[in-house]
Amino acid sequence: MAKYIDVHPDNPQPRAIGQVADTVRQGGLIVYPTDSCFALGCQLGSRDGIERIRTIRRLDDRHHFTLVCQNFAQLGQFVHVDNDVFRAVKASTPGSYTFILPATREVPRKLLHPKKRTVGVRIPDHRVAQALLAELGEPLVSSTLLLPDEEEPLTQGWEIKERLDHQVDAVVDSGDCGTEPTTVIDFSSGEAEIIREGAGDISRFE
Predict the structure, then answer these.
(1) Cis link prior to 94 (omega < 30° from 0)?
(2) How far apart are the first and last CA of the chain?
(3) What is the dihedral of CA 172, 76, 73, 66, to 10 degrees?
(4) Are 100 and 187 in contact (CB under 8 A)?
(5) Are 75 and 123 in contact (CB under 8 A)?
(6) Rounded to 5 degrees, what angle do the CA atoms 180, 181, 186 make?
(7) Of 175, 171, 141, nearest to 16 (Cα)?
(8) pLDDT tens digits, residue range 54-113?
(9) CA 128 from chain center: how many Å?
């Protein structure tokens, strides 16, 4: 059974955040809130966690996983960002955007797009997610919690706990999340290509 961890949305309790971080460090798979939707998350090196995300969402090997980072300095360890792209990404973070960029050697092969050698990265504008990332000191491997054959992500923590009780290790609830996933911008060619229009304003990339 998954642990249900209630966290205050504006002042996340350190003890609760520490409990979530410990679950991640022990190889657990969590559901946590972001500034767009609830997301599935696991530790960077957790092969089991990645496979469990694939199973829950029925993803193939072409799916872009996202490294959810605390800040821009951390993001820069995992992707190559040239000057023009740097300015565009920096101006849009933190926020509801995922950027696809060429990965550095710090990124495990299982997370890379098999042909492009790219990975998604984002910095969420959400206090609970930020508190968790600060406690972990490393990114979370993440994917939007959108279940197969469903058009919209789940928005209620208690419902997620009921639906995924035996498939995840913890559900972090800080209130309802939205149903609109991040806007995805592919910068792997050096130019902005809008892959998915979502919660982030696309006008600056058009």
Answers:
(1) yes
(2) 45
(3) -10
(4) yes
(5) yes
(6) 135
(7) 171
(8) 999 999 877 878 999 999 999 999 999 998 899 999 999 999 999 999 999 999 988 888
(9) 13
Tokens standing for residue 106: 């710090």
Instruction: State both tokens at 83.
Output: 């000057």
CA separation for the pair 77, 84 (Å, rounded):
18
Burial degree of 40 (CB within 10 A; 0-12, 13-18, 19+): buried
What mean pLDDT is reported for the chain? 94
160 CB-near residues (< 8 Å, 6+ apart): 31, 38, 145, 154, 171, 173
pTM: 0.95
Distances (CA, A) of 159 to 55, 125, 180, 195: 19, 24, 18, 30
β-pair partners for 39:
32, 144
* CA 73 to centroid of chain Cα atoms: 17
